[in-house]
């Protein structure tokens, strides 16, 4: 299972990012646990300056925009 953290203020883009990741994970049958993090201190601890940002298994993989489908599939398929 992949632990995914969507970092952001809770804005529409952050919510959409979490929804996209969850939908794609279901489509390709990858088990995920998605959590939204809005605490500015936690977000800064990852060095994120622009949200939404995506952290998978404690590793920052994306920030600053809603991720493209191809990227999400690639992240979810990696071991």
Structural summary, described in words:
- The chain has a single domain (2-77), classed as 3-Layer(aba) Sandwich (Glutaredoxin).
- Helix content is 39%, strand content 27%.
- The chain contains three helices and four strands; from the N terminus they run E-H-E-H-E-E-H.
- The chain has a four-stranded mixed β-sheet with strand order 2-1-3-4.
- The radius of gyration is 11 Å and the shape is globular.
- The N and C termini lie close together (10 Å).
What's the CATH class, please?
Alpha Beta
Strand order of the largest sheet: 2-1-3-4
CATH superfamily: Glutaredoxin
Q: Biggest β-sheet: count, sense, barrel?
A: 4 strands, mixed
- Helix share, percent: 25-40%
CATH architecture: 3-Layer(aba) Sandwich
The number of helical runs is 3
Query: What form results from the Cα inertia axes?
Result: globular
Overall number of structural domains: 1
Structural class: alpha+beta
**Beta-strand level of the residues, as a percent range?**
25-35%
What is the straight-line distance between the termini?
10 Å
Question: Mind telling me the C-alpha Rg?
Answer: 11 Å
Low-confidence stretches: none
Number of strands: 4
Order of helices and strands: EHEHEEH
